[in-house]
């Protein structure tokens, strides 16, 4: 049967599509629920020290080959972005935060 011998494709495409889908869904929910005093935000971190790169062999090396050596963000850096969102006054809507290491292209 066609497809039985298909190997798993690189998950980068699925990862990128999923990130876009989350951002789009969040914006749709923001527009739908804004009159109910519900706020939605997306935090898009760049390279962050985490177990993510341990899950797939060669992931860290793949990142380095694409972007070079990068001093990764710490979990606390992303947590500070989240704290900024939730402690902002009600009149402030932080829809999206992109946070990357300084040396990440």
TrEMBL record:
Superkingdom per UniProt: Bacteria
GO molecular function: oxidoreductase activity
Membrane-spanning ranges: none
InterPro entries registered for this protein in UniProt: NAD(P)-bd_dom_sf, SDR_fam
Keyword tags: Oxidoreductase
Tagged with keyword Oxidoreductase: yes
Protein family (similarity comment): Belongs to the short-chain dehydrogenases/reductases (SDR) family.
Record's protein name: SDR family NAD(P)-dependent oxidoreductase
Native source species: Labedella populi
């Amino acid at each position: 049967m066609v497809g039985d011998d298909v190997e798993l494709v690189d998950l980068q495409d699925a990862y990128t599509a999923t990130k876009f889908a989350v951002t789009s869904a969040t914006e749709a929910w923001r527009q739908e629920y804004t009159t109910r005093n519900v706020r939605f935000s997306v935090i898009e971190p760049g390279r962050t020290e985490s177990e993510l790169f341990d899950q797939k062999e060669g992931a860290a090396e793949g990142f380095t080959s694409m972007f070079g050596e990068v001093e990764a963000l710490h979990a606390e850096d992303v947590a500070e972005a989240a704290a900024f969102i939730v402690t902002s006054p009600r009149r402030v809507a932080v829809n999206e935060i992109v946070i990357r290491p300084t040396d990440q292209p």
